[in-house]
Write a structure and sequence with these properties.
heterodimer; A: mainly beta; seven-stranded mixed sheet; four-stranded antiparallel sheet; globular; B: six-stranded mixed sheet; five-stranded antiparallel sheet
Chain lengths: 116, 110
């Protein structure tokens, strides 16, 4: 299993540009998450999904959109990039119905995004 | 009160020292608690879950105090390799919307 795969690893955007951060997992996890982490801070939840076709806002959803058309994929869309969206983005998945490690979050390796 | 709040640190300790971190949470009904470790510029990784009765994994001990709404992590006999940021994570509203503390940075020095 590859686990959780995020692309790209690095990206520089100009203000007002749009882009999609890709996230895919091959563990058949039903829950998927997008977090952002600003320097010296903990992770803030942007959006999460409990299954295909279902998405919910987290703490900091403004400026982002998501979709969950399949169990495997959970892309994050930035429509009009702003400097405040400069951050490290982590995608994660979990399988709450699994005995033992059900709530364990499996993370991708992150995307460093700079908006200039 | 912040939803999940940790000791700000940083903690700088010598090898072999014992160090403890605390984390408070705002919702008394929260049921699940975790400690994650994050190395510089890397993704967080689960260190241990925190159970009601407290639990131990080698040099690491996690405890939960429901009355005071905090969890703790104790590291004994610190190693250089323990240097990292430790993140407190709470399933705050029991809906798998995991909330992270800001993290406590630990540096273990020779």
């Amino acid at each position: 299993n590859a686990g959780v795969t995020q692309t790209p690893k690095f990206r520089i955007l100009k203000i007002g540009q749009s882009m999609t951060l890709q996230c895919t997992q091959d563990m058949n996890h039903n829950y998927m998450y997008w977090y952002r982490q600003d320097p010296g801070m903990g992770l803030k939840l942007i959006y999460y999904s409990v299954g295909a076709g279902i998405t919910d806002k987290g703490e900091v959803p403004n400026g982002y959109n998501v979709s969950r058309s399949t169990t495997e994929d959970f892309p994050l869309r930035l429509e009009l990039a702003a400097p405040s969206q400069t951050s490290v983005y982590f995608c994660a998945s979990s399988y709450p119905g699994q005995t033992g490690e059900g709530e364990k979050l499996f993370f991708g390796s992150g995307t460093q995004l700079s908006v200039l | 009160r912040k939803e999940v709040e940790q000791d700000p640190g940083p903690f700088n300790v010598p090898e072999g020292a014992t160090v403890a971190f605390n984390c408070t949470y705002s919702n008394s009904a929260s049921q699940s608690f975790f400690w994650y470790r994050q190395d510089c510029r890397k993704e967080p990784k689960l260190l241990m879950s925190v159970y009601s009765s407290g639990n131990e994994d080698g040099r690491f001990t996690a405890q939960l105090n429901r009355a005071s709404q905090y969890i703790s992590l104790l590291i004994r006999d610190s190693k250089l390799s323990d240097s990292a940021t430790y993140l407190c994570v709470v399933n705050l509203y029991n809906n798998n919307d995991m909330r992270f503390g800001a993290g406590t940075r630990l540096t273990v020095k020779p």
